[in-house]
């Protein structure tokens, strides 16, 4: 009986140790390797790993989608690999229109506003007659 209980305890210990090792080896950092079109503008990239949490479509002034993306930090701004992908997809930053944590990009006649939050980001597309940065987006969740 004692031998059987000891082997069960040993087996549980080995399984627990392997679980800790495997979970420790997985990276919680985003890979920044694959991008897909945003729900509000298919020609604007978002990391494939991002999870859509909220969206407002067909609003009279704007459409936006909010994505959760662990590891982003509002204070750090747009990560360099993401900036590179945005540029590679043909978007140009409009530095003069940036405000707070919102970065404005243009591609042809399209405008996209990217707002970085802690562990998430928002992609906002103002309607064509609304090219002004929508104020207050910095305080969104």
UniProtKB/TrEMBL annotation:
Q: Where are the transmembrane segments?
A: 7-24
- Its domain of life? Bacteria
* Keyword entries, A-Z: Membrane, Transmembrane, Transmembrane helix
Q: Would you tell me the protein name for this molecule?
A: Lipoprotein
């Amino acid at each position: 009986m004692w031998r059987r209980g000891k082997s069960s305890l040993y087996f549980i210990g080995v399984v627990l140790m392997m679980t800790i090792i495997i979970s420790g080896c997985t990276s919680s950092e985003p890979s920044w390797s694959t991008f897909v079109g945003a729900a509000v503008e298919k020609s604007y990239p978002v990391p494939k790993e991002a999870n859509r949490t909220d969206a407002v479509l067909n609003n009279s002034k704007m459409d936006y989608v909010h994505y959760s993306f662990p590891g982003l930090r509002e204070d750090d701004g747009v990560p360099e690999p993401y900036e590179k992908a945005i540029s590679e997809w043909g978007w140009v930053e409009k530095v003069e229109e940036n405000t707070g944590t919102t970065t404005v990009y243009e591609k042809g006649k399209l405008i996209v506003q990217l707002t970085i939050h802690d562990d998430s980001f928002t992609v906002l597309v103002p309607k064509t007659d609304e090219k002004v940065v929508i104020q207050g987006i910095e305080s969104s969740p």
